[in-house]
Design goal:
- The protein is built from 5 helices and 5 strands.
- The protein is of the alpha+beta class.
- Helix 1 packs across helix 2 and helix 2 crosses helix 4.
Length: about 140
């Protein structure tokens, strides 16, 4: 697990002209330090213990701002589940159908080409695999 200081996160928000608030910093810190591809509900539930005044609206709005500022990505592997990823570099995701854990893996998305899309402008590339992780296979 990667640990980033509160001061570094403050600097990152300031560099992107995002108004600082304790809630925004805690949400960014949660994403950065946990890297578990959480849902809004997971973030809210985990942070509400320490921040009783936190609302789901604040979580939604903060995540929207972080995505717009290229500090996080929206991850939709299941149609009914939106998750958030602090890793904005190109990579793929594997979701275990048994335990539900999501794993990152390295993939060169730029090398994936499709001749049928030659004259298309591609704005986003995502690679998702589903299956059973090694832990659940044992």
């Amino acid at each position: 697990m990667k640990t980033v200081s509160f001061e570094d996160l403050q600097k990152e928000l300031k560099n992107r002209n995002i108004n600082l608030s304790y809630q925004r910093l805690k949400i960014l810190q949660y994403l950065t330090n946990s890297q578990i591809h959480p849902t809004v509900d997971q973030i809210f539930t985990d942070l509400h213990k320490d921040i009783p005044t936190l609302s789901k609206t604040t979580v939604y709005n903060t995540l929207k701002l972080l995505v717009q500022s290229d500090l996080a990505k929206v991850l939709t592997i299941e149609d009914n589940e939106t998750r958030y990823d602090i890793n904005i570099e190109n990579h793929g995701h594997f979701k275990c159908e048994s335990c539900g854990e999501i794993y990152d893996f390295t993939i060169d998305l730029d090398s994936i080409a499709n001749k049928e899309l030659k004259n298309f402008k591609i704005n986003d590339k995502k690679v998702y695999f589903k299956g059973i992780c090694p832990r659940c296979l044992n």
